[in-house]
From TrEMBL:
Species assigned in the record: Paenibacillus antarcticus
GO MF terms held by the record: O-acetyltransferase activity
Protein family: Belongs to the acyltransferase 3 family.
Top-level taxon in the UniProt lineage: Bacteria
CC per GO annotation: plasma membrane
Name of this chain's protein: Acyltransferase
Length: 366
C-alpha cells in the first residue's frame, strides 16, 4: 500500500483521526448552547448549529478508520485478539465509567450517597450505559470488535462485488429507510415499520466499519469519487439549514440531520474519507518528518483524548452566551475547543509517562 509510511503510520488515517477528535470536542461543546435555548434566530445558536453540523462526520469516520485498519489484519488466535484488542477497551470503559460516575455523583450532584449505594448505582449505569454521555462509543466498538474474528474472515472471502452488495443493502436499510421513516414521523407523528427491513447484519455501525475496509482496499471510479465529494460538500451546507427548519417546525432542537445515519452525515463522512485518502501522497510529500511525528503523536492519543476531553471540558471551559454576537460566539468556540484539546492532549501525554496509569486508564494505549 502506498499509504504506509516508513514508520508504519498511514498519514491520511492519522489526519482523519485528529480532525475527528477535534470535531467530537466541537460537537460536545456546541451541544450545550443548542440544548439551552429554543430561540433559533440568535447568532449564537446559528454559529453553534453550523459548527455542530459540519462536525457530524466524526463518529462515522472513527468507525470507518477502525474497520479499515483492523479488518486487514489476519486473526490467527481468538485469545490473542481479545487480549490485545478487546480487553483494553473493556478496561478503559470500566475506568472512565467509574471516574465520570464518581465526579457526577459527588462533585456535580454533591450527593451523600453511601459507597454501597454508589456501587449499585454505578453497576446499573455500567450495564445500561448510563454513566456518561460519550462512553456509548466504547459499548458500540466493543460489540463490533467481538465479531471481528468472524467479520474479517467474511470480508476477505467476499469479492468486491459482494461487498458492494452488502454496503448497498446496509445503505438502503440503515440510511435511506431511516431517513424516510424520520420524515414520515415528523409529518404524521407515526413511524413507518416494515418488518422485512429488520435485518441485523444490515443495521448499525457495522456498515460504517465495513465501508472503511472497502474504501481502503478497493479503488472506486473518479466519477463516483467526484459524486461523493460534491455530495459531502453540499451536505456541509444543507445540514445546518435543514436543522434550523426542522427545529423551527417542531419548536425544539430537532436532531434528525445530526444523526450518525442521516443522509447528510453519511455523505460528509464518506466524502471526508475519500478526499483525504486521495490526497495522502501529496500530503506526505509536502510535510516534513517532524510534522509527521507530531501528527502521529496526536493521532495515537486520539482515543485517550476522546475518553478524557469531557472531564476537561467540565473543569475548564466556559459556556457560550446565548445572546453573544458573531465574533464573540466564534472566538469563544475556537478558544474553548483549543483549550480543551490542548489540555486533554498534554494530560494524556503526562499520564502516559507511567505505564501502569496508561494500562489502567487507557488499556495500555498511548
Amino acid at each position: 500500500m502506498s499509504h504506509i509510511l516508513k514508520d508504519k503510520r498511514i498519514i491520511f488515517i492519522d489526519i482523519l483521526r485528529i480532525l475527528s477528535i477535534v470535531a467530537v470536542i466541537i460537537l460536545h461543546y456546541t451541544a450545550d448552547l443548542l440544548t439551552r435555548t429554543n430561540d433559533f434566530n440568535t447568532t449564537s445558536w446559528w454559529i453553534s448549529n453550523f459548527f455542530n453540523s459540519i462536525s457530524r462526520f466524526a463518529v462515522p469516520v472513527f468507525f470507518m478508520i477502525s474497520g479499515s485498519m483492523i479488518l486487514r489484519v489476519e486473526v490467527k488466535s481468538y485469545r490473542h485478539f481479545y487480549l490485545k484488542k478487546v480487553l483494553p477497551l473493556i478496561i478503559s470503559l470500566l475506568s472512565w465509567s467509574l471516574i465520570y460516575a464518581v465526579y457526577t455523583q459527588y462533585f456535580i450532584l454533591k450527593s451523600s450517597m453511601s459507597v454501597y449505594g454508589f456501587l449499585v448505582h454505578f453497576a446499573n449505569g455500567l450495564i445500561y450505559d448510563r454513566n456518561y454521555v460519550h462512553l456509548w462509543f466504547l459499548y458500540a466498538i466493543i460489540a463490533i470488535y467481538i465479531t471481528v474474528p468472524l467479520i474479517s474472515k467474511l470480508v476477505k472471502a467476499c469479492s468486491e462485488k459482494d461487498l458492494r452488495y452488502y454496503l448497498l443493502c446496509w445503505f438502503l436499510i440503515s440510511v435511506v429507510y431511516k431517513f424516510i421513516s424520520d420524515v414520515v414521523f415528523r409529518v404524521t407523528s407515526e413511524y413507518i415499520s416494515i418488518p422485512i427491513t429488520n435485518i441485523p447484519l444490515f443495521m448499525g455501525y457495522l456498515g460504517y466499519f465495513i465501508l472503511g475496509y472497502y474504501l481502503y482496499n478497493y479503488d472506486i471510479s473518479s466519477k463516483l469519487k467526484n459524486i461523493f465529494y460534491n455530495l459531502g460538500i453540499i451536505s456541509f451546507f444543507i445540514t445546518p439549514v435543514a436543522t434550523y427548519f426542522a427545529s423551527f417546525y417542531s419548536g425544539v432542537l430537532d436532531e434528525m440531520f445530526y444523526g450518525n445515519y442521516s443522509l447528510t452525515t453519511f455523505c460528509m463522512a464518506i466524502g471526508m474519507f475519500i478526499y483525504f485518502q486521495a490526497k495522502e501522497t501529496v500530503i506526505s510529500e509536502r510535510i516534513n518528518y517532524k510534522i509527521k511525528k507530531i501528527i502521529s503523536s496526536v493521532s495515537k492519543a486520539s482515543f485517550s483524548i476522546y475518553l478524557i476531553h469531557l472531564l476537561v471540558e467540565i473543569l475548564v471551559s466556559k459556556r457560550a452566551a446565548i445572546e453573544a454576537n458573531l465574533f464573540e460566539t466564534t472566538m469563544s468556540l475556537i478558544f474553548n475547543v483549543a483549550v480543551i484539546f490542548s489540555i486533554s492532549y498534554i494530560t494524556v501525554k503526562v499520564l502516559n509517562l507511567n505505564k501502569y496509569v496508561t494500562q489502567v486508564l487507557f488499556g495500555g494505549k498511548s
